[in-house]
User: Fold this.
Amino acid sequence: MNRYETIRRIKGIGEKKETLYHRLGIFNINDLLYYYPWDYESREVIDSLDEVIPGDKWVVKGTLMDSGIVKRIRGNLSITRFSCKGEAGVFDVAWFNIPYLKNTLRKNSTYYFYGKIQKKFGRYVLENPEFKHEKEGQNNREILPKYSLTKGLTQKDLRKAVADVLDQKLEVEEYLEDSLLREHDLLGKGDAIYKIHRPKSKDEVIGARRRLVIDELVEIQAGFKYFKSLNKTKIRLNVDREDEGKIEALKSSLPFVLTKGQQEVVGTILDDLKKRKRMNRLIQGDVGSGKTVVAALAQYIFFLKGYQSVIMAPTEILARQHEKTIKAFLEPFGIKVALVVGGMKKNDRKAVLEGLKDGTCHLAIGTHAIIQSDTEFFNLGLVITDEQHRFGVEQRSKLMKKGSSPHVLVMSATPIPRTISHALYGDLDVSTINTMPKGRKAIRTHCIKKSRLKKVYGFILEEIQKKRQAFIVCPEIEQGENENVSASELYKDLIDSVFSETKVALVHGKMRADKKEETMGKFSRGEIDVLVSTTVVEVGIDVPNATVMLIMDADRFGLATLHQLRGRVGRGSYESWCILATDTSNEKSLERLRVLETSNDGFEIAQRDFELRGPGDYFGFKQHGLPEFKLTDLSRDEKEIETAKKILDTLVDNNKTETIEKIIQSFKKKIDNID
Ligand SMILES: Nc1ncnc2c1ncn2[C@@H]1O[C@H](COP(=O)(O)OP(=O)(O)OP(=O)(O)O)[C@@H](O)[C@H]1O
Assistant:
């Protein structure tokens, strides 16, 4: 057997089982070795059945006292039962619908049985236990791996297949020298893989996991180092006094004065452009902190130097909103702005694309439609992606290829906790807009039970009388199997009852884009009072007149999403409210929601969410186009991030080019495999 042979080589895996393994992403022996358990089950042999709390799971050793009986209980339900005796006491074992066991197990033979122990009619009984013959051996305490499964594959299947492979003692490639392993007190790779599947103790799991986590972190850091090494550009902008004057003129034409935070970020961008390095900057700013105008200023700088720029937004609604805002800022200065979205009329699209190709159009705003192969630019100098967590590395790089190594700005309202940005965004410099525009009032957030919704609707009506508007967001479009409020149902209920005299509309992700657009437009212009929706309104919608955000079944959403949704109100100078309706009694969920009641600060919320739920949930690695870690948990493995960094530095210092190249290849392969 070698590591790259198909899993069909393993005994017991035929054609049918093979397809099930494929579902788990396991194709060859190597995949199986790297299919780590997600948890372990500790099995202990019990000394005396009298110590048992019924319902607990234990291993009981016993000798069969009879040859078993099969009893038909009803219809096609049968039970096979044996009585046993062992040092722990007397007990029965029973299985449902496996009559052939009567011929498998032998009277007077001794077995280890594992399962839930119940007490029925005064006798101990293990129902449907797993069992093995005494001869197969059993430690007093056994730790068994638990793997993620798919329908048709059992824990037993996986354990057996992995055990078969481990027994072959296949060699696993080690890329770290002994001295490095010793220096950082790490297990060898082969040893770690063996122990992660077949640990003898908790400490062995910890040691194995630590080694494999380090490997994951070395790989991702090497990958980003590589990306960063590509960051050279020929596009250098010499912003002179005259340009600076023009930039100041644009600033004074704006309907507001830039905040200190906005000023600083614009300053940093200007500094970046003086360097030979390609600008690759993430601009983080809490919801409503005013990132759009910073993007517009950056685009203006490129325009002054004869370069085109592009903004890519995650949704059409947002692209259109940016178009409107940016046109208002920049068109008076002679900049021609074009919108590129899906479903444009053929002739319109043709005209826009021609303008971008011949350079008469200076600035493009659009959705992923911009990446399509027929878009060409005259001289693209700047690529801005908005809410980058919606775009993968892959899409970003496609957009980059539209220019010759253009500069990059990424805008995000989702703050990335420090640990993550440090570990992962080695390739991005980060700046933060840390001040809010003047005159904003804190949004008041309250968590309520759904029984109090009537009161909230009354309050919304009062706000509407004051000419304000409200959002109502639901977790689902249509009623599913669970109890959650769906947007469609709620919309129907509301227009038939409390809001029968109110202008209410519904938007959700399954509606046609133009219909969605039209409704959002109406809401934006104040022609609709209440918008019932799903999270399509989450990102970026700017309606300063809206003052109430009511979120149904708020416990269903992550904190980052809730904070984003809340950020749709309180964008003007009116006092605003966010109401989180939930009937959950889950203490953890309530604790999360309380974070929002007490904080309006996106960064603090992100950090808390990160601590409460872990980065996987918060961050959604796949959404970023990044390979997911199998074992690493960035909220716990801070020390390992540092160790991995040191190891990588040592490899670089010692000119281990071949090793580093291999690590990078493996990283790239994973990125390519993300769907
Ligand atoms: N310095 C400022 N003073 C006053 N208002 C401002 C300032 N900067 C931006 N605004 C206004 O604040 C609102 C929010 O700005 P913008 O839409 O750019 O926020 P954002 O950071 O993109 O928020 P989100 O992440 O929610 O999309 C807009 O109505 C904008 O006109």
Residues 444-599 form a domain with the Rossmann fold fold (CATH 3.40.50.300). The CA atoms of residues 391 and 624 lie 6 Å apart.
